């Protein structure tokens, strides 16, 4: 292994060390109360070292979302590649994939939805914002393909497939955020997956062409 390769590996290891520490701090204190100093202490690094890797707290917060977006894109792309499945079967597989995306990291996916509806995006570096936008666009495009195939086969209503993908994603994020807020009030009640199941069922009925 060359010197440059070792440096790159060490840089990535340190970056992941910071991200893991940030996740712990954000989980414990929330985004608003957490500071770069808190994260540096958790990572056992100096605050100055953090700024070598991340422009600000917002970038650290947003970087946590990238793993979710990458996983979402992988799962949905895999569904699209299953050529033996009918559009209905692909839609069922897509819904199952969404449960997996949530289970992959519930805390971070909730943070990601908050991020998407906040001013935080304005404080990100151009490169990170571009990466988030590209991954989001690819994932929505992959979801849209499933609806487009169903339209082509006369199963689903004739609407713009990207619009349907946007509605599907908005429904998913809305249910996750709402149920998460309810759980804060009463931790004994957790109806997220049962509510998602109902939402998915109603969505599927809504996009199906009338006989």
Description:
Residues 35-54 bind DNA. One of its GO terms (molecular function) is DNA binding. Residues 12-72 form the HTH tetR-type domain. This protein folds into two domains: 1-54, Arc Repressor Mutant, subunit A (Orthogonal Bundle); 57-207, Tetracycline Repressor, domain 2 (Orthogonal Bundle). The chain has nine helices and no strands. It has helices at 3-33, 36-43, 47-53, 57-81, 87-104, 106-116, 126-152, 161-185, 192-207. The longest helix has 31 residues, at 3-33. The chain is globular, with a radius of gyration of 20 Å. The mean pLDDT is 88.
What does this entry show, briefly?
By secondary structure, this protein is mainly α.
Low-confidence sequence ranges:
none
Question: How many β-strands, per DSSP?
Answer: 0
The main pleated sheet reads as: none
Overall tally of domains: 2
The percentage helix is over 70%
Q: Over the alpha carbons, how many angstroms does the gyration radius reach?
A: 20 Å
How far apart, in Å, are the first and last alpha carbons?
64 Å
Strand content: under 5%
InterPro entries: DNA-bd_HTH_TetR-type_CS, Homeodomain-like_sf, HTH-type_Tx_Regulator, HTH_TetR, Tet_transcr_reg_TetR-rel_C_sf
Pfam families: TetR_N (PF00440)
GO molecular function: DNA binding
Keywords: DNA-binding, Transcription, Transcription regulation
Q: Secondary structure elements and their pairing?
A:
Blueprint: H1 3-33, H2 36-43, H3 47-53, H4 57-81, H5 87-104, H6 106-116, H7 126-152, H8 161-185, H9 192-207
Helix pairs in contact: 1-2, 1-4, 4-5, 4-6, 4-7, 5-7, 7-8, 8-9
